[in-house]
Write a structure and sequence with these properties.
By secondary structure, the chain is of the alpha/beta class. The chain has five domains: 5-163, Nucleotidyltransferase, domain 5 (2-Layer Sandwich), CATH 3.30.420; 239-332 and 454-459 and 657-699, 3-Layer(aba) Sandwich (Rossmann fold); 336-426, no CATH class; 473-651, no CATH class; 705-911, P-loop containing nucleotide triphosphate hydrolases (Rossmann fold), CATH 3.40.50. It is built from 36 helices and 23 strands. A hairpin with a 4-residue loop joins strand 13 and strand 14.
């Protein structure tokens, strides 16, 4: 592409082209990596620039107030662009604003975001990330530097595109033929015309690993670890200190390591609460590595979050092996994920050969074709899929239903799942997540190899994940997806139209497929009626909460209501349709066995997959509505502005399942977390998980909380639910954030309270140059955390996921505010049902649960020995209720002060050293 192009970028007052305005325009004319000319102008938006935009761009109000009108600037821009192709990062954003201003570009447009997603495997596709990765100039949230970076990124991406195999280029160009709205389409048409590939030249060429590993064979009798020898590694001047310059000796880490080593050697179960800063991953990895090598044993390590899983695989284990030297030689380790994470090559081939593809299918096939030329794992995590793409990938993943096993032509050479399992069977350490650990347990241990030793990190989340894996959620979209996989409403794509396309409507198979299509359409009507009635039922029995989930427990009393009878009848009619479809698909599968078609095996396998999925959907609907099972909690939900309806089910107790199916079958299980005890006792977590006989160890944090952390408890704020409480929270937050200069994380227990608070405090604080960001309003948790870390005068309001798992060391987080104590909502179906098991539900269940979450929230504040911070709890119940001490006594020893709200700003300033 040896011609001039123009990279453009706009700075705007917001993200909505209908209400926001352009305030800066820039363009860069370039050829390859050579910059030919540049253009940059400010434009008067004739409105106030929001504070967050001024912070982001550095553009002041005075600058734009004296700038020329936008119309004048856009005339100059159009003249600069001329007829040259235009390049932008997320170019549709720029085009939408230009279009709203009356500018329609006639030239071809390319999008660096779309091209990067296709050609690169990154976690982040922002312009800044791409510029760093590709060596382009650095963007800065100003139009000209961003346009310069876009030009450099495009030039580098174009070079990578030219390096693609000609057959792959032809495949992409062929698939893109039906994608009129796909921005890279013209580029690949040009690449194909210059590469001159032969039609049908594309062939699958995987990066197949050639190692042939044998499964581990454990030694006959366990050799206990030399624990004193292991401790030497962690001592001052030991190997870790010599390997890592920033290593700090921590007696708490040594204590934990010794207990884990003893549990593995003696085949015991152990619970370890390790305070922040203990270094618990090293404390369990070191004995796990030595134990696994010494006994040729397999140790499974389970985490709750992907971040920790990646930290173990990419940082902690390799670092320890460097430290161990010869003592770690021969260790094999791997991360294993669930079947749904791996691409099934047979299903991919089947869709690729389809005669009719939707635009979404073609787009995903293009991404997969380029990805398959470089991936070694086949793991979807490399693809950074959108929600729509992830849904489609679910049809192409290595799900068990319909898997041909040894009869699959891909299994021995290239099957990603098969290769991952073989590597797992030969590895000493296998890192998984709780979802895989428990789903494998629920499915009868079909994915993980036989193992006797298990370490569960972030184990405070084990009960919640077990509840998820041993229960189910089923919504209208699941059944619609099932119907769409059989046949789209248009009748042009899906398995049944595919069968008709292969065999024609005149032959028996084609006729059966056509009949089943009509049955699917009839079933859609019954589906709509059932979920409409369910939606009406929820509306009638719950209070309206705009844009938030409303849940209704399906209790014996509800099942006696007349409105329930209508829903039950509609469900039974839908179940009948699903059953008829199942019978028809079974007959079609039988008929396929006698077909000589080369597509027979693939089509039959896909039919089996859909048969099993449809059967499961029918069973779950029937269980929730018509035939409830003992010991299972059922509920229905209505969520979002679109009022999406779903049904949920979960076991009343997971402890018996975990005890019988997991803990009793393992030689040693170690569970660790920073929050496992309530009031210094493991009793609550032991009862919830079924670990009555496990030993317990509390390892205090090495941090000096007494000197570093002030806990302030206002005594004159109204209790929650009392008049004046919300107003008190809002006013206190404004004063506290002023005193801290931003640098504040405020945690809420409800989205409604969070949004109300943001609306109240944002105008005041942003006038004082303090940015206010809210979870669920201003971006994803990851985006918000990045902004919070990078902009010191920022307040972040969070719920749910921000109570735990986030790490913001240093001054960026100096003030932690809890709006109220984190008790569960009494009407939550799970909480309500489980509470009824106790003689004293509040003290035995609600209180310990809230204390553990309280500790998780507190753990966000101090993340290193150098940190200093203040926690303020705007809930007077800590002082006024008998249970207040249970929360405070669960914290490490801090400096605690009680006083009026008016003294808060002074106390914060003094503690943080700002006075």
């Amino acid at each position: 592409m040896n011609r001039l192009l123009v990279a453009i970028d706009l700075e705007t007052t917001g993200t909505d082209p209908n209400t926001d305005r352009i305030m800066e325009v820039a363009a860069v004319k370039f050829e390859g990596r050579r910059i030919v000319d540049t253009f940059q102008r400010l434009a008067n938006p004739y409105c106030a620039i929001p504070y967050r935009i001024r912070v982001l761009t550095g553009i002041g109000q005075t600058e734009v107030d004296t700038a020329p009108p936008l119309a004048t600037v856009l005339q100059e821009l159009a003249a600069f662009i001329g007829n040259h192709p235009v390049v932008g990062h997320n170019v549709s954003f720029d085009l939408a604003f230009l279009g709203q201003a009356g500018v329609r570009l006639a030239s071809q447009c390319y999008d660096t975001f779309e091209l990067a997603i296709l050609l690169l495997r990154l976690d982040d596709y922002s312009l800044a990330s791409l510029a760093r990765h590709l060596g382009a100039s650095t963007p800065s949230h100003r139009a000209l530097p961003d346009a310069m970076a876009t030009a450099g990124v495009f030039a580098a991406l174009l070079e990578k595109a030219y390096q693609l195999d000609p057959g792959l280029i032809a495949e992409v160009n062929h698939l893109a033929a039906s994608l009129e709205q796909w921005p890279p389409r013209p580029l690949f048409a040009e690449l194909a015309s210059s590469a001159h590939p032969t039609p049908g030249q594309f062939a699958l060429a995987l990066k197949v690993a050639t190692d042939s590993l044998e499964p581990l064979k454990a030694v006959a009798s366990v050799q206990p670890l030399d624990i004193d020898n292991l401790a030497i590694f962690l001592e001052p001047g030991g190997r870790l200190a010599k390997t890592f310059p920033d290593f700090e000796y921590r007696p708490q880490q040594v204590k934990m390591m010794r207990s884990v080593a003893q549990a593995l050697s003696r085949k015991e179960h152990l619970l370890v609460e390790a305070g922040t800063g203990t270094g618990k991953s090293i404390a369990y990895l070191l004995p796990a590595i030595r134990f696994a090598l010494q006994n040729n044993a397999q140790v499974i390590i389970s985490t709750n979050t992907i971040n920790l899983q990646e930290q173990l695989i990419n940082k902690d284990i390799p670092g320890l092996l460097r430290c161990l030297g010869k003592d770690g030689e021969g260790l094999r380790y791997v991360a294993l994920k669930g079947r749904s994470n791996y691409l099934c090559l047979r299903r991919w081939e089947l869709l690729r050969q389809s005669l009719l593809l939707s635009a979404e299918e073609a787009h995903l096939l293009i991404r997969l074709a380029v990805w398959l030329a470089s991936t070694q794992s086949g793991d979807r995590a490399e693809l950074n899929l959108s929600s729509n793409e992830a849904s489609l990938f679910g049809r192409l993943c290595a799900q068990e239903a319909g898997c041909l096993g040894v009869n699959c032509p891909h299994q021995q050479r290239a099957c990603f799942l098969y290769r991952a399992r073989r590597k797992t069977q030969a590895s000493h350490l296998v890192v998984v997540n709780h979802a895989l650990l428990l789903s494998d347990l629920a499915s009868g241990n079909k994915l993980l190899p036989e193992y006797r030793y298990l370490i569960i990190d972030e184990s405070h989340q084990l009960e919640a994940e077990a509840t998820e894996q041993f229960g189910f959620h089923i919504g209208q979209r699941h059944i619609v997806d099932y119907f769409n996989r059989l046949t789209q409403p248009s009748g042009t794509s899906g398995l049944l139209p595919r069968i008709k396309g292969y065999f024609g409507v005149q032959r028996a198979l084609g006729q059966q497929a056509e009949l089943l299509q009509s049955q699917v359409e009839a079933a859609r009507l019954r589906l709509s009626r059932f979920f409409d009635l369910l939606s009406r039922l929820i509306n009638d029995h719950t209070q309206a909460q705009w844009n938030y989930e409303r849940q209704l427990s399906i209790t014996p009393g509800l099942r006696l209501q007349p409105s329930w009878s209508q829903s039950k009848q509609a469900q039974q009619e839908l179940a009948l349709s699903l059953h008829d479809l199942e019978l028809g698909l079974g007959r079609l599968h039988t008929a396929l066995q006698d077909s000589p078609s080369p597509q027979r095996d693939d089509l039959a396998a896909e039919l089996v997959s859909l048969l099993e999925y449809g059967h499961q959907l029918g069973e779950r609907l029937t269980s929730a509505i018509s035939q409830p099972e003992p010991g299972i909690i059922y509920w229905c939900s209505l969520s979002g502005q679109e009022e999406v309806v779903s049904l949920g089910a979960a076991p009343l107790e997971v402890a018996p399942i975990l005890e019988q199916e997991l803990f009793s079958r393992k030689d040693s299980v170690v569970l660790t977390s920073a929050t496992l005890t309530a009031e210094g006792s493991f009793s609550y977590i032991k009862e919830r998980l079924g670990l009555g006989q496990a030993a317990g160890l509390i390892v205090e944090s090495p941090f000096d909380y007494l000197s570093s952390t002030l806990v302030y408890l206002p005594q004159d704020i109204p209790e929650p639910e009392r008049t004046g409480y919300q107003a008190g929270v809002e006013q206190a937050l404004v004063e506290m954030c002023r005193a801290a200069g931003g640098r504040t994380l405020a945690l809420f227990t409800s989205h409604a309270a969070l949004r109300a608070t943001q609306a109240a405090i944002q105008p005041t604080l942003e006038k004082e140059n303090i940015l206010v960001l809210a979870q669920g309003v201003d971006g994803s948790p990851k985006q918000l955390l990045n902004a919070f870390k990078n902009s010191p005068r920022t307040v972040l309001l969070g719920t749910a996921s921000l109570w735990e798992g986030i790490d913001v060391p240093g001054d960026a987080l100096s003030l932690l505010v809890m709006a109220r104590l984190p008790f569960s909502i009494p009407s939550d179906p799970l909480f309500s049902a489980r509470s009824k098991q106790y003689d004293d539900p509040f003290n035995q269940y609600a209180l310990p649960q809230a204390v553990l979450k309280f500790k998780q929230g507190f753990g966000r504040l101090i993340r290193s020995k150098r940190d200093r911070g203040v926690m303020v709890v705007l809930d007077r119940r800590l002082s006024s209720k008998y249970y207040g001490p249970a929360f405070l006594q669960s914290l490490p020893q801090c400096t605690v002060k009680r006083g009026p709200l008016r003294l808060l700003p002074r106390e914060i300033s003094a503690w943080l050293g700002q006075t």
